[in-house]
Amino acid sequence: MDYLKKIFFSTILVLLFPLISFSQLNVDRYMFTGRMQLARNEFTEAIRTFNTVIVVKPEIYEALLFRGIAKYNLGDYKGAENDYDAVIKVNPFISDAFHYRGVARERQSEYNSAIEDFNKAIELDSSNSGAYFSRGIAMVMLKNYKKALEDYDRAIKLKRDMYGAYLNRGIIKQMLKDSAGAMSDLNKAIRLNPYYADAFSRRGLLKYESGDFKGSLTDFNQAIKLDNMNVMSFYCRALCKYKLLDYTGTIEDYNKVLELDPQNALTYYNRAILESYIGAYNNAIEDYEKVSQLKPENILAHYNRGLIRYELKDYKGATEDFTKAINVFPDFAVAYLARADVRMKLNNVKGAIEDEKTANEKIYTYNKNKKDSSLNSLMDTTKLLNKIIEFDSDFENTNGIIVNGRIQDKNVEIEAASNFVITFFYKDSVFTNKAPYFSVEADDLNNRPGIKIPFTLTNKDDSLVQRKAGTLIETMNKAISDEPGNSFNYFERALLKCIEKDYHSSINDYNKAIELNPGFAFFYFNRANTRYKMLEFINSIDDSYIVRVDMNKNITNARQEKSEIKTGYEDVLGDYDKTVSLMPQFPFVYFNRANIKCYLKDYRGAIDDYNKAVELLPEFMEAYFNSGLTYIYLKDNKSGCIDLSKAGELGMKDSYNIIKRYCNKDK
Length: 667
What we know:
The chain is mostly helical. The chain contains 35 helices and two strands.
């Protein structure tokens, strides 16, 4: 039952405090707004609100406390712990500060340290029912069930309507085989809160284990009605439907699980078994393939797919699958026997005899020694190897996918923040109505006489600008004709040509601008950006495309040309280096240069540049984000998670998804 612990014991606390009166009205308003954002699960917004208070009034420790709560709910447990540390330094007599730090430590699997904090919280306030509740969680993780029961008894005595305490006490009783006591507590939790999805889900599991599949199904239906984003509830309901022979309904629920959690190998495996049973062999083969990709060590996925291919008379494919199973587990006697049968079909008599001999030797050795009874099914040919599996590690530590601000539970692609560029500002532009950062250097561009369209600094694309680029180029052609010595005319036309993806012409215009005005940093900065975009575009085209569009070159030269293009990154770095020499206080050039160094696998050099960028611009969230990703790639998760936490604190929402995956010990 280990898979159940994290699901139901790590209940997120509702942590709200009374409104605190502050001397300045604006601070009071920010604190109230932040509290409301917490109540609405708008955690990233709450962090930004409390950041404002912390900057203006760093002595208001309540803002740190609230920000820690928001970080905790986003899965940034280390970041939350750091905020609680800061609160305790300011005021070491706040029970809740120790309580919440203990919760953050418990989520990092630091159970003994967490218990020390809970003890301190209770010492400061013996009526703190939440501290008893949380200490009970840590006690369960240490398998001290007796102490955990005592803590929940105490929590309930202090707060009779604490439905979460009844739920957790019921879970402990179920683990201790006290089914009647567990059912009583779960019923009580539901009576206290009839909208408590977790309680219905847990009671459904209890009924399932007792064989009451119809009652279990009813509870899971209600749990899903209350929370239709909970992966575990859909999975368990699928098990109920399977037991009740509703195979169509089972597959529908498996489909929903995979919609919410596309990496759930167990569900692919079970769906494949059921598809195989109802004759949907091709679907089953696809699902087993997915299992093999997600969990290559799953020998039964290879073996069962081999059986299907055998039924379809794909003997070569079956042989490959049985061989994969044997490679994963060389003592898999049943797989040798299956491969022997297939080899006979392929007239490989010698191979079949060898496999049958190997299988019999392994079965004899196993039966003689009986070393590990858990391997019995892999040795005993009478065992069925295509049973539905109820639970495994895919459900050990999941809380389901929750929206409403729970950024870290969403499935998102991990993509580094892209380069910043100088581009045009339009009133109707989607992203440029407000530049993400103010740059004195970039703003100076707009103060120059003769600027026809204002500039902005951004790392977002804007199709609206591209639509206008063609007509504006004609305007710039005339401006250059009228005033050929004005370097900024070439600069503006170069920018427009880059937007049009006419990279070579754009670079030529930057070259001309630099020839006329070699001391202006942004000419080099934008030329580097254009060169980089051109290289990205070229590298996205495969060799065959290059050959087709340039028939005058042979294949060898075309491929060689593409490989040589990669040396163009040296020119990009050269332009960024020149920008640094002319404008050393411009943080965005260090950020862009760091991104190029990452591409060229100079990770340490990249981290140095990211550090320089945040030194110059402390609120540079993209630099913290990319630095964090780089550290994690280098297996320095500790440093990476610190930077990702800072990026999330500053407003980079995708940080919390990565923090959840890489920054918690139980992951």
